[in-house]
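EI: anyone free to look at a 222-residue chain?
SC: sure, send it
EI:
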Amino acid sequence: MPQVHIDETIAEKSYRRIRADIIFGRLVPGQKLKLDKLKIGYDTSISTLREVLNGLAAEGLVVAEEQKGFKVSPVSVADLKETAELRLLLETHALDQSFVDGDVDWEATLVAAHHKLARMEQVMASGDTSGTEDWKRYDWEFHQALIAACGSTLLMETHSVIFDRYLRYQMIALSYRGDVAATEHQQLLDAALRRDAEVAKGILKQHIQGGVEHALARGKLT
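SC: here you go
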């Protein structure tokens, strides 16, 4: 979830809005992206839309069909599993170095990110799903904070892209696992503060695989 910049260009604003609409399911899997309609809905030009959609195609969120235009990427069980495996690979790799190099400022950022996530998880657990997008934004922020000291901007950016692909499946399946996920987040925080990378990686694997299993159990990906 890229951060919003005050001085962002029209193309950047359109990219951010369309990307969020795909991730949060307002543009549904397989939906045709007709440029004439998008031009009105996103208040931008056809040429800008082509630029934006080609960029999203490179991220795997849009499919560019030769002579047919664009559509939102479809979903599948196989793609969910592959996305989850890639997320786990990237996040565990970055986590190792982040735990080695993280300082007190990194710890403070991580604790603050977890606090926001934990508060939103309490709201979700109460049955109030009006803040679903805030919940997932805080989830993203926590997992990014976990690996923020890894020292690689490219790795962080790649992880962010893959995390959002994974997040799209969670939104489609409305996959909130309740206390289980909240407990795993707390365990990840505790392991990070102890610099226990092996325990953290085990929890992270359980966390991501549990999310996949929960999404599949809801039967909304077929």
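EI: The first strand starts at residue 32 and ends at 33.
SC: 👍
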